Amino acid sequence: MKLKFLGAARTVTGSQTLVSHNGHSFLVDCGIFQGPKAIRELNWQVPEHLNKVEAIVLTHAHLDHSGLLPRWVKLGWEGKVYCTPATFDLLQILLIDAAKLQEEDARFANKTKYSNHKPALPLYEEKDALRALSCLETIEYDEWAEIQPGVSIQFLRAGHILGSAILQVAYTQEEESRIVTFSGDLGGGHSEIIKQPSSSLESTHLVVESTYGDRIVDTSHRDLDLASAVNKVCRRGGTLVVPAFALGRTQDLLVSLYQLKASKLIDDFPIYLDSPMANSVTKVYLSNQSELLLEHQDLDFLKALSPPFFTPVVSTDDSMILCMSREPKVVISASGMLQGGRVLRHLVHKLRDENNGVLFVGFQGEGTKGRVLLEGAKTMRIYHEEIDVEAEIFNIAGYSAHGDQSDILGWVGSFRSELKSIFINHGEVEAGQVLAEKLRGLSSASIFTPVMGEEFKLS
Ligand SMILES: [Zn+2]
């Protein structure tokens, strides 16, 4: 079996690994590249292996793992795409939304002549997303399914977001059964609503993510830190803007805010969810209750995911009105790294006032507006306007849907069989290197940090 790393190699987006065995090939994830322009340009390349790939397996619905699928379909790719049932539900929302955004961006670029391409074209359109959705086939967790001659796969819970999976690929080589495990994005087991990642697995080889491979994240104060930011900003009459990913982080936050309100650790300030996609995704969480961690909770967390606990904001007009409003409040709005979406409009209205606050609750990738603001920018360019940053900036890392270094090491250490090789991907260079050093101290496996395009033959 061979693995070729075609994305998320020494970076965090564009997850894509080509798996080849006995003349057959499939992809693990088909993620879109996000971040600086030079990285995004990679989305436009025609993959040289397009016609070689017979199937695609998706570990979860986040676009950096699934968002290039409609592009492949647009380029003529045909085949089956395997995912868990909850990922299937989420992709119905995410891929259509992604296509609409691509179309909107192209229209905007043509109107403002803000593009080098004439005319500017969308990476893909809604019709491509619909065709991509028709390729989806679901496989339940913990069930093996043969997807190619001699190659079976199994999804296990990854504890990252609803529907997220660790992927195991079983194959035979030199008459011996082997397994290669892909961690996908691995949760740290700290989510209040998503079931824990599966551990104590059997495997011969491992591909593991490293988003937080170089740091320990203290999650013990995260709820109190959240309470303190909410109370501090709202009590002085300000708005706390929380840029959050529509899928995963938003639902975790709602549950934490619900707990804090129930235990009277925050005052009864209104909470708005200003993102049509986050509102739709939250409904998918409610319709997949068997995947939620509800049975041990004293509180009815389903209430946290439904109005009237929060006010959903759907129409653009209502969002504009909310931007102007000066009542003290919490506004959760996408996108999480400020790469677009309604949150930018809130920042245009709120950044200049020191009474307001911006609370980051997740990883801010290199080259994103979120990283710039988090690193202390005094001004910020939004919609061609230079805006002074007076609002208070807060950062709570404990809400990440990714495990930190100790979570990853604990999970790798729990494997019941001796791993022959470990490939570290989905992390920036420093994170991958630090994790590699730690793993060398823990495991006798050969450790690799592949670069983009690097291929390995599994022994
Ligand atoms: Zn993810």
Plain-language structure description:
There is one protein chain. This protein is α/β, with parallel strands linked by helices and 459 residues long. It has two domains: 2-215 and 401-457, 4-Layer Sandwich (Metallo-beta-lactamase, Chain A), CATH 3.60.15.10; 222-399, Rossmann fold, CATH 3.40.50. Helix content is 30%, strand content 22%. It has a seven-stranded mixed beta sheet with strand order 6-5-4-3-2-1-22. Strands 7-8-9-10-11-20-21 form a seven-stranded mixed beta sheet, covered by helices on one side. Helix 13 (429-442) links the parallel strand 20 (421-425) and strand 21 (446-448). The model has no long low-confidence stretch (mean pLDDT 93). It binds zinc ion. Zinc ion binds at residues 60, 62, 160, 185.
Task: Describe the structure concisely for a colleague.
The chain is of the alpha/beta class and 459 residues long. It is built from 13 helices and 22 strands.
What would the keywords be for this entry?
459 residues; alpha/beta; Metallo-beta-lactamase, Chain A; Rossmann fold; 2 domains; 7-stranded mixed beta sheet; 13 helices; 30% helix; binds zinc ion
Helical fraction equals: 25-40%
What small molecules accompany the polymer chains? zinc ion
Would you report the number of β strands? 22
SS class:
alpha/beta
CATH architecture of the largest domain: 4-Layer Sandwich
Judging from the principal axes of the Cα atoms, what is the shape? Answer: globular
CATH class label of the largest domain: Alpha Beta
In whole angstroms, the N-to-C terminal distance is 8 Å
Largest sheet: 7 strands, mixed
Number of helices: 13
CATH superfamily descriptor of the largest domain: Ribonuclease Z/Hydroxyacylglutathione hydrolase-like
Q: Are there runs of 5+ residues with pLDDT below 50, and where?
A: none
From the alpha-carbon coordinates, what is the Rg to the nearest angstrom? 22 Å
CATH topology of the largest domain: Metallo-beta-lactamase, Chain A
Question: Mean of the pLDDT scores?
Answer: 93
Going across the biggest sheet, name each strand in turn: 6-5-4-3-2-1-22
Number of domains: 2
